């Protein structure tokens, strides 16, 4: 079973890949890893963040027009500097893991892996599919359409880093929940990563998501915490 440190490593690799592929960048300063990507500026799992380093990151994000700065922390890290630098405590990721051979999830005809926007243009972030076109493939995007209305119903990503695959950005739109779409999306991205050689999948879950992932064979390995600074608030 993957450790929390391995979950954090895969999360960091995913944020770096998104930033570097989608027009952002990754900056290492004073041993801290900052990613400037599609969701704003993020500091990835610092062991000992200082107030000065955090304020420099906020100033950099503000200069680049970012509206949000996030910090991902391990549960053992001193959080005091975050509060002093104007950040607010956020949600607590639940790290989970599953051997890919143990997920045993069936295929779902409503789910498809995509590399080009195609029929989901306008409904899905076109530029993010650049991740799915990296060669050799390291990232996969699955989308779901409702069988009755043919409407776009959800999406999920997986990303391979070594022998581990992270599952990210999984969402089912509210009108289509409780129809098995989340399970189908999870199956599709896990299967794609497994075919590429990944042996285990890891993810961070919200309290609501943890129930779904547990039913699909994932086990909790630990928790973390996030802190956020909304720059529009000063």
Protein architecture, described:
By secondary structure, this protein is an alpha+beta fold. It has 2 domains: 4-95 and 224-233, Aminopeptidase, CATH 3.40.630.30; 97-220, Gcn5-related N-acetyltransferase (GNAT) (Aminopeptidase). Helices cover 26% and strands 34% of the residues. It has helices at residues 4-21, 51-63, 80-84, 181-195, 207-215; strands at residues 25-29, 32-37, 40-44, 68-74, 88-89, 94-99, 111-114, 139-145, 152-161, 164-172, 200-205, 219-230. Strands 1, 2, 3, 4, 5, 6, 7, 8, 9, 10, 11 and 12 form a 12-stranded mixed sheet that branches. A hairpin with a 2-residue loop joins β9 (152-161) and β10 (164-172). The longest helix is centred in the first third of the chain and has 18 residues, at 4-21. The chain is globular, with a radius of gyration of 18 Å.
Helix-strand blueprint:
Elements: H1 4-21, E1 25-29, E2 32-37, E3 40-44, H2 51-63, E4 68-74, H3 80-84, E5 88-89, E6 94-99, E7 111-114, E8 139-145, E9 152-161, E10 164-172, H4 181-195, E11 200-205, H5 207-215, E12 219-230
